């Protein structure tokens, strides 16, 4: 395309485009960003822009589309959301003064993980850029993984060693849900990881070359960011891979952003053992932050617990839910803080009131640092500072160690408040384009320029008075017209008194008009005042931004403390509104719940009341609860509610129960039916077994495991056998607390053979063929599966129900193994598969009334049966 004959501007375009073949190039031309060729085709399709053409010196016009520069953010945001990257090419000099072709250059590449504009970010979520460096080593895999949110400055990193590195990395990704992931080429070998990313996330994957991970490159990146002794200040593990991962992340930021790394001042090294382990499947099953269907917030634990007032609190709450703790000391500090706020009704209300005026200073600080904050936003920072003393005071007043610590960490930032309120007007403009942001009295020159600008009234009338006095002409006037600008007008009768320094400009019938050098100077000042004022306001504003930026660490510390206070107050508020209690959290082995409820379902049930249920689980006699009961009885709800209560306790929240004791669990595992992954090409059964295998491999004695109807995906006897073997394995080899719902009544006999197994069922009331769900968990196995009754409830036609009962009776009669009270053994299985009793015999037996039989009739009946058997 780039032939000899193209126009100079297009030649420049091709030069720049060559360096960014994979990004959509936004090419600044005057008031527009223009896109050409393939970029134009893509952008016009994705953004529904009109496709036009641009003369480019060649016969065919270049396909082109454009967006106005002042609203480009929304277009970039939409392209980013669709998985594109956008390179922004600016004019590097003023086209009005440039000689020849305007210089242009790429100032930034916008990618999903590097966005800082509030218009492109969700306020209640962090936006993480992730970097993974993984390599096969002896005995498995080794990896460094890190996450950075450049809109808030947070950064986290950890080391991993694992045979099954794919799964381990998936678990890390689930904690932070990054929007963009940098990987080294070896990571491509981890197929389970790459499949997971493709199928279950919207993250953009960026393959980085091996050269980005070279020792020298990595070291130079890290010392550029953190100084020469980065190794000391960052505290990375020796011989780990985090430096490579983090170095590559920094390299990517330097490469793509003008700004982006200044905000990252420290990296937090976290250890896997610091948090409860939750697999991707478990997070999804428990619907922690998004629902399984629809991936919405409504209907999740986050939705129930979110009573926060600030965006910072919302993000912090989400991360607490994603990362439950395992150290009962830290958990109890949170719980004590929630309790104090729970009890302090007035104080909590006042704290929340103060918080409700707190702006997202965490992200705002980023924009202040990068100079893109608006006057209105900076004013909002000032308004926030004004509320901080109240936040501090209320937090300290409630009386709990953590609250005191956080109150201590809140810096009232009074110097910033003072500076902002002195510098900015009460209601500053949304942008600085037209000035008007700087307050009167802040800067003498601004005041003077404004005075001059507003007609320069004071200055002009002063000059007029001076001239009248000097010349003795009483009616001398200063006027303005478009042709000469400012002039002095003297009526005809006084023309004689005009001094020589006046230059005549115009003659009127009534008098003469003059100018003087002094007046011209004033005129220049007035006419130039606007420009000068704008420049000065810009300068003062950016000085203000610099001053605030210098306090970055103080603001950040305050923001983090405020966010935590917001979450703790939110927990307290949710506890009051939803009637939760403080759990006892310790290092015991129990999960003891009195009248527990499902936190989400109880909120979703509008008309009916949620029926509370008790739970007794431990690592001894009550380690395995086998729960039976008909479909729709509430088995799944009950099991999940126990998991959610344990999880809530470990994030420091009160729980939906009358009383509750939680011995810290190190992990929750769930296997819940019906999440088929058919789209992924795997059969339901295969998925199910893979998940069960994961659980058996990773659960420890201190884990909580939930198995919901495993074995469904295969034939009855296969399924039953697997289920039984799994129960035995967990009880004997792992010993963790397990809830196991099953429709295999045969498994209910296991309590006699296996230590730790207890039977429970969810009670239903049966009257004739009708059943009512009582939603009560009771000890002992269910006596029936009630499948047909449930089908009737669901509205299956009577004829079908009748027939089903008949078929069932026959089956039960011919296959004694299907009876709930019978032991599962291979004779039973045999009998089921090879029924030897004809149904006619059974029917006859059913029909006969033994009590009214005479001995002779009995004999005849026996004969009849014998005949039927032949
Ligand atoms: P199962 O797993 O036994 O088939 P579910 O747990 O899916 O049954 O429960 C079916 C429905 O019953 C739930 O969607 C919920 O609306 C209701 N439910 C379950 N448990 C309770 C309860 N304790 N109180 C009130 N309603 C409940
Ligand atoms: Mg269920």
Describe it for me?
With 870 residues, the chain is an alpha/beta fold. It folds into seven domains: 8-110, 3-Layer(aba) Sandwich (MutS, DNA mismatch repair protein, domain I); 123-274, Nucleotidyltransferase, domain 5 (2-Layer Sandwich), CATH 3.30.420; 306-413 and 551-578, MutS, DNA mismatch repair protein, Chain A, domain 3 (Orthogonal Bundle); 444-531, MutS, DNA mismatch repair protein, Chain A, domain 3, CATH 1.10.1420; 584-790, P-loop containing nucleotide triphosphate hydrolases (Rossmann fold), CATH 3.40.50; 797-833, no CATH class; 839-869, no CATH class. Helices cover 44% and strands 18% of the residues. Strand 16 (503-507) and strand 17 (511-515) form a beta hairpin. The protein is elongated, with a radius of gyration of 38 Å. It starts with 7 loop residues before the first helix and ends with a helix. Adenosine-5'-diphosphate (ADP) binds next to helix 23.
With strands numbered from the N-terminus, the spatial order across the biggest sheet is 13-23-24-25-21-26-27
Bound molecules: adenosine-5'-diphosphate, magnesium ion
**Approximate strand percentage:** 15-25%
Using the 3D structure, state the CATH architecture of the largest domain: 3-Layer(aba) Sandwich
Oligomer: single chain
Q: Per CATH, what is the topology of the largest domain? A: Rossmann fold
